[in-house]
């Protein structure tokens, strides 16, 4: 269609016309451009689509109801635009246990997705990677820093994986497997991570896994779940025996929770052979005992100062990384799941805990540090028997 340039410029000016009622002004840039294009088409004599015709747009009709003194609400940007949070229907997880080949497939898929993010496979998945065969699993857990938990979901979305609750839906050859996302608030860079024994994934080392199990013991101790405590004790003794076989050089700085007073005191009080197994694994039990006895003496001194109105000088006990471990959905330190090769989830028999539990102020030899010492009896002096003046 031929068009006179002067006529086109006049049409582009869109000079306002006299109207009995002023037309409402669109609020968004997209709607303003649509309104302008419709007027330009009308001035040029072109056909105006019914959707964008002036006076007939549904967008304009919606804005006529807004009061002039009220501003339109700001649009909300939904987080689902970057990565999905939930799936409309319930996820059909695969409930069958995984053998080594299925675990290798899942571990490699996880690593291919998260190799750009600091992560490590933890919990029962890490135990199985180190050779544990007492239980099997149908899902795994990964651990990351708190600052990377959203990045984990974003990288999973780039692979087309859905996010359901606190888990990633990873499709495998036999169905959708569940990968739970867990994170710690601090100290991830201080954990010891190693390459998987049978895949490309990154897993917690045997030492850091032991500290993870110790944090799970404390978590279930507060819940008073004795059945879980017995199962966790079996995992602890399995790790200690494997450490003794491998003659590993254990760094005590990697075991802040395991060598902490709360776990060490309770676990050694429950199991009489615990200190022996720790020593055989290469853990300096004597240094741990001396540290806790010193802490008990400092608490006694601190309490004496407070009783006399003075300020105490004992620093607060520092907790390990795994004691602040959480998942996106709820707090979960060390999840017990899976079945043995022969049937139901059971644990090896463990010795019953003693009736008297460990209390603050009592050292590991059984003597109360806060009680006054009994007076010492003078030793008898042997004198020679002789008649002499």
UniProtKB/TrEMBL annotation:
Biased composition (Basic and acidic residues) is annotated at: 379-389
According to the record, the residues making up region (Disordered) are 51-81, 341-389
In what ranges is there compositional bias, type Polar residues? 63-73
What is the designated name of this protein? Answer: Uncharacterized protein
Native organism is Xylaria bambusicola
